[in-house]
Protein backbone atom coordinates (compact mmCIF):
# COMPACT_ATOMS: atom_id res chain seq x y z
CA UNK A 1 0.00 0.00 0.00
CA UNK A 2 1.42 3.39 -1.00
CA UNK A 3 0.78 6.13 1.52
CA UNK A 4 1.35 9.80 0.78
CA UNK A 5 0.70 11.97 3.80
CA UNK A 6 0.25 15.43 2.38
CA UNK A 7 0.65 17.45 5.58
CA UNK A 8 3.07 20.38 5.73
CA UNK A 9 6.15 20.61 7.89
CA UNK A 10 5.19 22.23 11.15
CA UNK A 11 8.10 24.62 11.31
CA UNK A 12 7.05 26.07 7.95
CA UNK A 13 3.48 26.87 9.06
CA UNK A 14 2.57 29.52 11.60
CA UNK A 15 0.11 28.46 14.30
CA UNK A 16 -2.93 30.35 12.86
CA UNK A 17 -2.31 28.90 9.41
CA UNK A 18 -1.91 25.42 10.83
CA UNK A 19 -5.14 25.83 12.79
CA UNK A 20 -6.99 26.75 9.62
CA UNK A 21 -5.49 23.82 7.76
CA UNK A 22 -6.41 21.38 10.50
CA UNK A 23 -9.92 22.83 10.70
CA UNK A 24 -10.42 21.92 7.05
CA UNK A 25 -9.03 18.44 7.64
CA UNK A 26 -11.16 18.02 10.74
CA UNK A 27 -14.35 18.79 8.82
CA UNK A 28 -13.67 15.97 6.39
CA UNK A 29 -12.57 13.71 9.20
CA UNK A 30 -15.66 14.32 11.31
CA UNK A 31 -17.90 13.61 8.35
CA UNK A 32 -16.00 10.55 7.15
CA UNK A 33 -14.16 9.14 10.14
CA UNK A 34 -16.35 9.59 13.21
CA UNK A 35 -19.54 8.42 11.83
CA UNK A 36 -21.54 5.46 13.20
CA UNK A 37 -22.23 1.87 12.59
CA UNK A 38 -21.12 1.84 8.94
CA UNK A 39 -17.47 2.30 9.95
CA UNK A 40 -14.95 -0.31 8.86
CA UNK A 41 -12.76 0.30 11.91
CA UNK A 42 -13.66 1.58 15.38
CA UNK A 43 -10.86 3.21 17.35
CA UNK A 44 -10.89 3.99 21.06
CA UNK A 45 -8.43 6.87 21.31
CA UNK A 46 -6.77 8.25 24.41
CA UNK A 47 -5.12 10.82 22.20
CA UNK A 48 -6.96 14.04 21.49
CA UNK A 49 -9.07 14.72 18.43
CA UNK A 50 -6.68 17.45 17.32
CA UNK A 51 -3.81 14.96 17.19
CA UNK A 52 -5.71 12.03 15.68
CA UNK A 53 -8.17 13.36 13.13
CA UNK A 54 -5.76 14.63 10.44
CA UNK A 55 -4.16 11.21 10.25
CA UNK A 56 -7.44 9.32 10.32
CA UNK A 57 -8.78 11.50 7.52
CA UNK A 58 -5.67 10.85 5.43
CA UNK A 59 -5.85 7.11 6.10
CA UNK A 60 -9.45 7.06 4.89
CA UNK A 61 -8.53 8.94 1.73
CA UNK A 62 -5.66 6.55 0.99
CA UNK A 63 -7.48 3.29 1.75
CA UNK A 64 -11.19 4.01 1.46
CA UNK A 65 -11.70 2.54 4.93
CA UNK A 66 -14.09 4.45 7.18
CA UNK A 67 -12.95 4.96 10.75
CA UNK A 68 -15.09 5.80 13.77
CA UNK A 69 -13.22 7.28 16.74
CA UNK A 70 -14.30 7.37 20.35
CA UNK A 71 -12.23 9.78 22.44
CA UNK A 72 -11.50 9.68 26.16
CA UNK A 73 -8.76 9.37 28.76
CA UNK A 74 -6.53 6.37 28.10
CA UNK A 75 -7.06 4.84 31.54
CA UNK A 76 -10.83 5.22 31.25
CA UNK A 77 -10.90 3.65 27.79
CA UNK A 78 -8.74 0.77 29.02
CA UNK A 79 -11.23 0.18 31.82
CA UNK A 80 -14.08 0.34 29.32
CA UNK A 81 -12.44 -2.23 27.06
CA UNK A 82 -11.85 -4.50 30.04
CA UNK A 83 -15.50 -4.17 31.04
CA UNK A 84 -16.72 -4.86 27.50
CA UNK A 85 -14.42 -7.87 27.17
CA UNK A 86 -15.10 -10.01 24.12
CA UNK A 87 -18.07 -7.77 23.27
CA UNK A 88 -16.03 -4.60 22.85
CA UNK A 89 -16.94 -2.40 19.91
CA UNK A 90 -13.30 -1.32 19.60
CA UNK A 91 -11.09 -2.75 16.88
CA UNK A 92 -8.06 -0.66 17.82
CA UNK A 93 -6.98 0.97 21.08
CA UNK A 94 -4.76 4.05 20.65
CA UNK A 95 -3.39 4.92 24.06
CA UNK A 96 -1.56 7.98 25.30
CA UNK A 97 0.74 5.80 27.40
CA UNK A 98 2.03 2.26 27.71
CA UNK A 99 0.39 1.65 31.07
CA UNK A 100 -3.15 1.61 29.68
CA UNK A 101 -2.05 -0.76 26.90
CA UNK A 102 -0.43 -3.04 29.47
CA UNK A 103 -3.60 -3.07 31.55
CA UNK A 104 -5.67 -4.30 28.60
CA UNK A 105 -2.97 -6.79 27.63
CA UNK A 106 -3.02 -8.19 31.17
CA UNK A 107 -6.69 -9.05 30.62
CA UNK A 108 -5.74 -11.18 27.59
CA UNK A 109 -7.79 -8.97 25.26
CA UNK A 110 -5.16 -8.06 22.66
CA UNK A 111 -4.32 -9.67 19.32
CA UNK A 112 -0.77 -9.74 17.91
CA UNK A 113 0.39 -6.53 16.27
CA UNK A 114 1.24 -6.68 12.54
CA UNK A 115 4.62 -8.40 12.59
CA UNK A 116 6.23 -6.37 9.83
CA UNK A 117 5.27 -3.02 11.35
CA UNK A 118 6.16 -4.03 14.90
CA UNK A 119 9.55 -5.46 13.86
CA UNK A 120 10.82 -1.97 13.06
CA UNK A 121 10.25 -0.65 16.59
CA UNK A 122 12.93 -0.91 19.28
CA UNK A 123 12.04 -3.69 21.79
CA UNK A 124 12.06 -1.10 24.59
CA UNK A 125 8.99 0.51 23.06
CA UNK A 126 6.69 -2.44 22.42
CA UNK A 127 5.16 -5.36 24.30
CA UNK A 128 7.34 -8.38 24.83
CA UNK A 129 4.44 -10.64 23.90
CA UNK A 130 4.01 -8.99 20.50
CA UNK A 131 0.68 -7.30 21.19
CA UNK A 132 0.84 -3.50 21.56
CA UNK A 133 3.45 -1.40 19.77
CA UNK A 134 4.66 2.14 20.43
CA UNK A 135 4.16 4.83 17.81
CA UNK A 136 5.92 7.80 19.38
CA UNK A 137 8.07 8.53 22.40
CA UNK A 138 7.75 11.28 24.99
CA UNK A 139 10.42 11.99 27.57
CA UNK A 140 9.88 13.37 31.05
CA UNK A 141 11.90 16.52 31.70
CA UNK A 142 12.41 19.25 34.23
CA UNK A 143 11.40 22.42 32.42
CA UNK A 144 13.08 25.47 33.94
CA UNK A 145 13.44 29.21 33.62
CA UNK A 146 17.16 30.08 33.26
CA UNK A 147 16.55 33.50 34.79
CA UNK A 148 15.40 31.77 37.98
CA UNK A 149 17.53 28.61 37.90
CA UNK A 150 20.98 28.80 36.26
CA UNK A 151 21.96 25.63 34.42
CA UNK A 152 24.67 24.89 36.97
CA UNK A 153 22.10 24.70 39.77
CA UNK A 154 19.75 22.24 38.08
CA UNK A 155 19.08 19.06 40.05
CA UNK A 156 20.77 15.92 38.75
CA UNK A 157 17.81 13.82 39.88
CA UNK A 158 14.11 14.37 40.54
CA UNK A 159 14.77 12.99 44.02
CA UNK A 160 16.63 16.24 44.78
CA UNK A 161 13.42 18.25 44.43
CA UNK A 162 12.52 17.52 48.06
CA UNK A 163 15.51 19.58 49.24
CA UNK A 164 14.64 22.80 51.12
CA UNK A 165 16.13 24.99 48.37
CA UNK A 166 13.23 24.00 46.05
CA UNK A 167 10.43 24.90 48.46
CA UNK A 168 7.64 26.68 46.59
CA UNK A 169 9.61 26.62 43.33
CA UNK A 170 8.38 23.41 41.66
CA UNK A 171 5.25 22.89 39.55
CA UNK A 172 3.49 19.54 39.19
CA UNK A 173 0.26 18.22 37.67
CA UNK A 174 -0.72 15.29 39.92
CA UNK A 175 -4.07 14.66 38.18
CA UNK A 176 -2.35 14.36 34.80
CA UNK A 177 -1.86 10.86 33.36
CA UNK A 178 1.78 11.46 32.43
CA UNK A 179 2.65 12.46 36.02
CA UNK A 180 0.85 9.40 37.33
CA UNK A 181 2.75 7.15 34.89
CA UNK A 182 5.98 8.78 36.09
CA UNK A 183 5.05 7.97 39.71
CA UNK A 184 4.35 4.38 38.64
CA UNK A 185 7.80 4.21 37.04
CA UNK A 186 9.34 5.52 40.26
CA UNK A 187 7.57 2.81 42.23
CA UNK A 188 8.92 0.18 39.82
CA UNK A 189 12.46 1.52 39.96
CA UNK A 190 12.80 2.67 43.57
CA UNK A 191 10.02 0.84 45.41
CA UNK A 192 6.86 2.03 47.12
CA UNK A 193 8.66 3.11 50.28
CA UNK A 194 11.08 5.52 48.64
CA UNK A 195 8.37 6.80 46.30
CA UNK A 196 6.06 7.51 49.25
CA UNK A 197 8.91 9.32 51.01
CA UNK A 198 9.61 11.39 47.89
CA UNK A 199 5.97 12.32 47.39
CA UNK A 200 5.64 13.36 51.02
CA UNK A 201 8.79 15.46 50.74
CA UNK A 202 7.56 17.01 47.52
CA UNK A 203 4.22 17.94 49.11
CA UNK A 204 5.99 19.34 52.17
CA UNK A 205 7.94 21.58 49.80
CA UNK A 206 4.66 23.23 48.80
CA UNK A 207 4.70 22.64 45.04
CA UNK A 208 2.53 24.76 42.75
CA UNK A 209 -0.19 22.53 41.32
CA UNK A 210 -1.50 22.84 37.76
CA UNK A 211 -3.99 20.78 35.78
CA UNK A 212 -1.74 19.97 32.83
CA UNK A 213 1.75 19.91 31.39
CA UNK A 214 1.11 22.79 29.01
CA UNK A 215 0.00 25.06 31.86
CA UNK A 216 3.18 24.17 33.77
CA UNK A 217 5.41 25.01 30.82
CA UNK A 218 3.60 28.30 30.22
CA UNK A 219 3.93 29.23 33.91
CA UNK A 220 7.65 28.47 33.90
CA UNK A 221 8.14 30.47 30.71
CA UNK A 222 6.22 33.42 32.20
CA UNK A 223 8.26 33.34 35.42
CA UNK A 224 5.36 32.30 37.66
CA UNK A 225 7.31 29.28 38.89
CA UNK A 226 10.98 28.36 38.61
CA UNK A 227 10.74 24.82 37.28
CA UNK A 228 8.26 22.02 36.71
CA UNK A 229 7.82 18.38 35.76
CA UNK A 230 6.40 17.86 32.27
CA UNK A 231 6.79 16.01 28.97
CA UNK A 232 9.44 17.31 26.62
CA UNK A 233 7.28 18.39 23.68
CA UNK A 234 5.12 20.96 25.48
CA UNK A 235 8.02 23.42 25.48
CA UNK A 236 8.29 23.35 21.69
CA UNK A 237 4.54 23.49 21.19
CA UNK A 238 4.51 26.67 23.28
CA UNK A 239 7.36 28.05 21.18
CA UNK A 240 5.41 27.33 18.01
CA UNK A 241 2.44 29.19 19.48
CA UNK A 242 4.13 32.31 20.83
CA UNK A 243 7.25 32.37 18.67
CA UNK A 244 10.54 30.68 19.42
CA UNK A 245 12.12 34.08 20.07
CA UNK A 246 9.77 34.52 23.05
CA UNK A 247 10.54 31.11 24.49
CA UNK A 248 12.48 31.59 27.71
CA UNK A 249 12.06 28.19 29.34
CA UNK A 250 14.33 25.22 28.61
CA UNK A 251 14.17 21.45 29.06
CA UNK A 252 16.54 19.67 31.41
CA UNK A 253 17.02 15.90 31.16
CA UNK A 254 18.23 14.15 34.29
CA UNK A 255 20.89 11.50 33.76
CA UNK A 256 22.24 8.12 34.83
CA UNK A 257 18.95 6.28 34.51
CA UNK A 258 17.07 8.70 36.76
CA UNK A 259 13.32 8.16 36.60
CA UNK A 260 12.96 11.87 35.86
CA UNK A 261 14.04 11.07 32.29
CA UNK A 262 11.48 8.32 31.74
CA UNK A 263 10.64 7.77 28.06
CA UNK A 264 7.05 6.59 27.74
CA UNK A 265 5.19 5.89 24.51
CA UNK A 266 1.88 6.51 22.84
CA UNK A 267 0.97 3.23 21.18
CA UNK A 268 -1.69 1.07 19.62
CA UNK A 269 -3.10 -2.42 19.97
CA UNK A 270 -5.64 -4.49 18.05
CA UNK A 271 -8.41 -6.09 20.06
CA UNK A 272 -8.62 -9.88 19.98
CA UNK A 273 -12.42 -9.62 19.75
CA UNK A 274 -12.27 -7.44 16.62
CA UNK A 275 -13.83 -8.74 13.43
CA UNK A 276 -11.76 -6.20 11.48
CA UNK A 277 -8.27 -7.18 12.58
CA UNK A 278 -6.85 -7.06 9.06
CA UNK A 279 -8.14 -3.53 8.45
CA UNK A 280 -7.02 -2.44 11.93
CA UNK A 281 -3.60 -3.84 11.05
CA UNK A 282 -3.52 -1.60 7.97
CA UNK A 283 -4.11 1.38 10.24
CA UNK A 284 -1.21 0.30 12.48
CA UNK A 285 1.02 0.01 9.42
CA UNK A 286 -0.09 3.46 8.28
CA UNK A 287 0.72 5.01 11.67
CA UNK A 288 4.18 3.45 11.55
CA UNK A 289 4.83 4.59 7.97
CA UNK A 290 7.44 7.31 7.34
CA UNK A 291 4.91 10.04 6.39
CA UNK A 292 2.79 9.51 9.51
CA UNK A 293 5.87 9.34 11.70
CA UNK A 294 7.15 12.59 10.20
CA UNK A 295 3.81 14.18 11.02
CA UNK A 296 4.15 13.21 14.69
CA UNK A 297 7.67 14.63 14.74
CA UNK A 298 6.89 17.87 12.94
CA UNK A 299 3.42 18.71 14.22
CA UNK A 300 3.75 17.56 17.83
CA UNK A 301 7.51 17.36 18.51
CA UNK A 302 7.24 13.76 19.67
CA UNK A 303 9.99 11.22 19.04
CA UNK A 304 9.19 9.03 16.01
CA UNK A 305 9.86 5.36 16.75
CA UNK A 306 10.36 4.27 13.15
CA UNK A 307 14.10 4.04 12.39
CA UNK A 308 15.21 6.48 9.74
CA UNK A 309 12.63 9.15 10.59
CA UNK A 310 14.33 12.08 12.26
CA UNK A 311 13.03 13.86 15.31
CA UNK A 312 12.66 17.64 15.22
CA UNK A 313 16.14 19.22 15.16
CA UNK A 314 15.47 21.12 18.38
CA UNK A 315 15.14 17.90 20.40
CA UNK A 316 17.84 16.09 22.30
CA UNK A 317 18.32 12.84 20.30
CA UNK A 318 16.41 9.94 21.78
CA UNK A 319 19.52 7.77 22.03
CA UNK A 320 21.22 10.44 24.17
CA UNK A 321 18.52 10.44 26.85
CA UNK A 322 19.73 8.39 29.82
CA UNK A 323 16.31 7.00 30.65
CA UNK A 324 15.66 4.33 33.31
CA UNK A 325 15.64 0.68 32.26
CA UNK A 326 11.96 -0.05 32.90
CA UNK A 327 9.60 -2.46 31.20
CA UNK A 328 6.91 -0.05 30.00
CA UNK A 329 4.30 -2.80 30.23
CA UNK A 330 4.66 -2.56 34.02
CA UNK A 331 3.26 0.96 33.94
CA UNK A 332 -0.13 -0.76 34.11
CA UNK A 333 0.24 -0.66 37.91
CA UNK A 334 -1.63 2.64 37.98
CA UNK A 335 -4.16 1.97 40.73
CA UNK A 336 -1.45 1.50 43.35
CA UNK A 337 0.08 4.82 42.24
CA UNK A 338 -3.25 6.61 42.57
CA UNK A 339 -3.70 5.13 46.03
CA UNK A 340 -0.26 6.42 47.00
CA UNK A 341 -0.97 9.90 45.62
CA UNK A 342 -4.20 10.04 47.62
CA UNK A 343 -2.44 8.78 50.73
CA UNK A 344 0.10 11.62 50.68
CA UNK A 345 -2.54 14.21 49.83
CA UNK A 346 -1.59 15.07 46.25
CA UNK A 347 -4.93 13.83 44.86
Explain what this protein looks like in three dimensions.
The chain has 347 residues and is of the alpha/beta class. It has two domains: 174 residues, 3-Layer(aba) Sandwich (D-Maltodextrin-Binding Protein, domain 2), CATH 3.40.190; 149 residues, D-Maltodextrin-Binding Protein, domain 2. It has twelve helices and ten strands. Strands 1, 2, 3, 4, 5, 6, 7, 8, 9 and 10 form a ten-stranded mixed sheet that branches. Helix 2 links the parallel strand 1 and strand 2. The longest helix has 19 residues. The N and C termini lie far apart (47 Å).
Strand fraction band? Answer: 5-15%
| Count of DSSP strands | 10
Question: What is the mean predicted local confidence, pLDDT?
Answer: 90
- SSE string, helix = H, strand = E? HEHEHEHHEEHHEHEHEEHHEH
CATH superfamily of the largest domain: Periplasmic binding protein-like II
User: Architecture of the largest domain, according to CATH?
Assistant: 3-Layer(aba) Sandwich
Q: Biggest β-sheet, characterized?
A: 10 strands, mixed
Number of helices: 12
In which range does the helix fraction lie? 25-40%
The rounded Rg comes to 20 Å
N/C terminus separation: 47 Å
- List low-confidence stretches: 1-35
Broad CATH class of the largest domain: Alpha Beta
Overall geometry: globular
The CATH topology of the largest domain:
D-Maltodextrin-Binding Protein, domain 2
How many domain modules? Answer: 2
Indicate the structural class.
alpha/beta
Amino acid sequence: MRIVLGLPKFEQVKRPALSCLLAVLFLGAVLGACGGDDADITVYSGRSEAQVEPLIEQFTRETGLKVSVRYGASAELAAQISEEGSNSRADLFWSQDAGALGAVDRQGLLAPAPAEAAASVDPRFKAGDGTWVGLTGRARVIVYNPAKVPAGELPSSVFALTEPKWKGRVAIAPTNASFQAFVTAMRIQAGDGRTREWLRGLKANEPKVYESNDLIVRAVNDGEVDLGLANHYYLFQLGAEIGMDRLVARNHYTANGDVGALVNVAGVAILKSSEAQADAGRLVQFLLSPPAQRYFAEANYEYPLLPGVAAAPALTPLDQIQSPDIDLAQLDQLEASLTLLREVGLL
